[in-house]
């Protein structure tokens, strides 16, 4: 695989499923600026596609209306591409909780469609985007993403001769993503309302959109079949996040209203389980977990086990590097939407 994503994107044709979302739009911009030959975007929303067409006004951007649930539309979008970034997903925890079968259709079966279509089209590399909620999952969104990961890994295990490298990346919370807590807090501050906090001690890994795009590029450059990558990230409590944001935007000490956790929410998230941490390799800003290539040989499985797993800890938002208010302010200040809100933010 190439050592430099920019070099390899030049002249390449790339498909992005779910390509009209925040990740997709950021990735499209990067790919076009790196002289991609074409970028195929597969998504369901024609209005967002139209907005994207106007925004980029670039003939190299090809928009495919369709759904990962529909193998034919996936086949058309990945045909003739070199790389696929699979970002299409149902990712809201509450909606998946109430409609779990919809999460299975998109996140599990849709992912299988993407991987199979990519392999059939001779695509060189498919990177599937997952989430920390897939580790020890307690909600339907996380469970369906865990099965997506298994689907990707099973493809790599069962097709050792395939020309298509399938890998997985896992994110923490992407800051300022649509529908997430930071834009909600901003709205509440502006409206003079109290900040609604579910549980003050709840922690989350915090990543910027740029970091999440870089993680996918890292996977694309370094992946062996079935690899899983995470980016090392800092975590903080929601109370710290709320206080940091209020201070940064000049609101001082905010009024806080505690709501209690929502359906399917964990107190802390885990980016890598202790079973994965046993096998992890440290790649600087990233961790790589190689595919577990053991076969269905129960005797070996039983005899060998993984005794080290008992002494290694999960990589969780509870035991990761924890930001205080000042550190959270510094990270928040790197987000373009927040920077544009006040000139008083230090760069
Ligand atoms: O009014 C609110 C809403 C949320 N929170 C808290 O803020 C944190 C972040 O909440 P978000 O809704 O922003 O994010 P989630 O952790 O629920 O999940 C998000 O991050 C995931 C990755 O872990 C997925 O990307 C998912 O799609 C996305 O919604 C949580 O501890 C949540 O309890 C509050 O305190 N008050």
UniProtKB/TrEMBL annotation:
Keyword Isomerase listed: yes
UDP-glucose 4-epimerase CapD C-terminal domain residues: 292-339
Keywords for this protein: Isomerase, Lipopolysaccharide biosynthesis
Database matches in Pfam families: Polysacc_syn_2C, Polysacc_synt_2
InterPro entries: CapD_C (IPR013692), NAD(P)-bd_dom_sf (IPR036291), Polysac_CapD-like (IPR003869), Polysaccharide_Synthase-Rel (IPR051203)
Family: Belongs to the polysaccharide synthase family.
Name of protein: UDP-glucose 4-epimerase
Organism of provenance: Actinopolymorpha singaporensis
């Amino acid at each position: 695989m190439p050592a430099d994503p920019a070099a390899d994107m030049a002249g390449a044709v790339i498909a992005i499923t779910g390509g009209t979302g925040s990740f997709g739009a950021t990735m499209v911009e990067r790919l076009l600026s790196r002289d991609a030959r074409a970028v195929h975007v597969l998504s369901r929303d024609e209005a967002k596609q139209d907005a994207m067409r106007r925004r980029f006004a670039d003939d190299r951007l090809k928009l495919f209306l369709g759904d990962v649930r529909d193998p034919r539309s996936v086949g058309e979008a990945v045909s003739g591409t070199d790389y696929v970034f699979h970002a299409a997903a149902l990712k809201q925890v509450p909606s998946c909780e109430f409609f779990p079968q919809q999460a299975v259709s998109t996140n599990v079966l849709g992912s299988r469609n993407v991987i199979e279509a990519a392999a059939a089209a001779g695509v060189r590399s498919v990177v599937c985007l997952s989430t920390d909620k897939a580790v020890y999952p307690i909600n339907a969104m996380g469970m369906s993403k865990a099965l997506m990961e298994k689907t990707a890994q099973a493809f790599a295990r069962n097709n050792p001769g395939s020309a298509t490298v399938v890998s997985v990346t896992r994110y923490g919370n992407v800051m300022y993503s649509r529908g997430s807590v930071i834009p909600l807090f901003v709205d509440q501050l502006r409206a003079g309302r109290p900040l609604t906090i579910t549980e003050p001690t709840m922690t989350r890994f915090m990543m910027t959109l740029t970091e999440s795009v870089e993680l996918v590029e890292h996977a694309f450059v370094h992946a062996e079949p079935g690899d899983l990558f995470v980016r090392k990230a800092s975590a903080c409590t929601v109370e710290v996040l709320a206080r940091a944001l209020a201070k940064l935007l000049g609101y001082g000490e905010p009024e806080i209203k505690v709501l209690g956790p929502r359906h399917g929410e964990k107190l802390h998230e885990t980016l890598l389980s202790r079973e994965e941490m046993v096998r992890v390799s440290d790649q600087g800003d990233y961790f790589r977990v190689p595919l577990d290539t053991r076969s269905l040989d129960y005797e070996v499985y039983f005899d060998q086990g993984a005794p080290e797993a008992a002494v290694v800890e999960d990589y969780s938002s509870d035991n990761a590097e924890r930001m205080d208010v000042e550190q959270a302010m510094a990270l928040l200040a790197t987000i373009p939407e927040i920077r544009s809100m006040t000139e008083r933010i230090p760069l």
